[in-house]
Amino acid sequence: TSLIFKSERGLDAIVPGGWSSGFSVANISRFVRPILDRTNPAQDGVSWGLFNLKRLEYYYTYATGTQAVPKEGLIANVSRQSKPYRWTQWAQPNLTAGTIYRESGTGYKQVVGDTSGKVFLMNVNSATNFAGVPINTRIQTKYYVGNYPENMKVYNWVFVDARTDGSYPVSVNLSLLRYGMPQAPLSNKKDLTRLGADDGWGVGAWGVALWGGSGITGERMRPQGGRRGAALKIIVTSSRWFRLNGFVAESEPRKSTLVA
To answer: What whole-number distance in Å separates Cα of residue 39 and Cα of residue 42?
Structure first.
C-alpha cells in the first residue's frame, strides 16, 4: 500500500522501505514526466486523485494550459509488486470529482462527475462512447531492440494475440525505429480477426470451465511497408475494450550494419 501525492517532481509515493527501514518517498512518474509537465500549476487546486482498490489503479486528473478545470488525466496500475507502474493516459476533459461506492453488497463501482453535473460509471467493457464521444483505446509498447541494440535488424513477422469482449475489430500497426519512416505507416497495419474472447479458453467457474479445444488465437503479420529497423514496437487500437495478451517478433540482425 502506498500514499500517492503531487509534488514539484510530479507524482510521488510513500512506499515501504523494507522490514526494518520504515518508509521512503519515491518518484513514480519519471516515465510520464513530459506528460505531467503540461499541468497548469496555477490550477493545482482543481486536480484530484482516486484509487480503485479492486483494479489496483490510481487515477489522477489535472488542468493544462489556461484551463481552469481538469483537462486530461493519467492512470497508474500498481498491480506489479516491486516493478515500475504501468501508465495509461486518458483525454476525457471536465471531470471534476470521482468516488468508489459499494452497490448492494455485490461489488465496488467507480463513478466520476463532470462540470455539467453528469455522473458516469467507469470500467464498462461494453461502452462505445463517453458522454457521446466515441471511445478510442490504444496501447503503444516500448521499442524492443532484441539482443543486438547496436545493429540494424530485418523483421520477418510478428505474432500478436489480443482479447476482446465481443466481435469488433482490433488494429495492429508495426512501427520500426528507422530514420525517415513514419511512426505508424499504414502499409504496416492490419486488422486482427482471430481474437480470444474475454472469458479466456472457456466459460464457467474455475475448475469447471468448458475448454475450447486446441485452436490458435492471435495472428501472424508481416511488415509490408519496410522490414529493416533498429527496433520494433507495436501500436494496438480499437473503438472498444481490448486486452493485449502478448506478441512475439522474429528478426535477423545485420551485424555488418550498425545503427547510426
So the answer is: 9
For residue 31, is pLDDT > 90? no
Q: What is the pLDDT of residue 191?
A: 86
Residue found under cell 468508489 = 100
Task: Please check whether residue 234 is in contact with residue 138, taking contact to mean a CB–CB distance below 8 angstroms.
Answer: no
**Cα dist. 178→29, 62, 146, 151, 256 in Å?**
28, 35, 15, 12, 17
State the DSSP string of 171-239.
EEEEEE--TT--SS-GGGEEEE-S-EETTBTS-SSTTS----TT---SEEE--SS--EES-EEEEEEES
> With bands split at pLDDT 50, 70 and 90, how would you rate the model's confidence at 211?
very low
Kindly give, in sequence order, each residue whose CB lies less than 8 Å from that of residue 37, ignoring residues fewer than 6 positions away: none
**Separation between Cα atoms, residue 176 and residue 228, nearest integer Å:** 7
Whether residue 257 contacts residue 152, with contact meaning beta carbons closer than 8 Å, is answered with yes
The set of residues, in sequence order, having a beta carbon less than 8 Å from that of 159 and lying 6+ positions away, is 218, 219, 220, 221, 247, 248, 249
Which set of grid coordinates corresponds to residue 209? Answer: 470451465
For residue 60, give every residue at least 6 positions away whose Cβ sits within 8 Å of its Cβ, in sequence order, or none.
4, 6, 11, 47, 48, 49, 73, 74, 75, 76
Beta bridge partners of 37: none
Question: Which amino acid is located at 104 in the chain?
Answer: S
Find cell 529497423 and name the residue: 229
d(CA 148, CA 229): 12
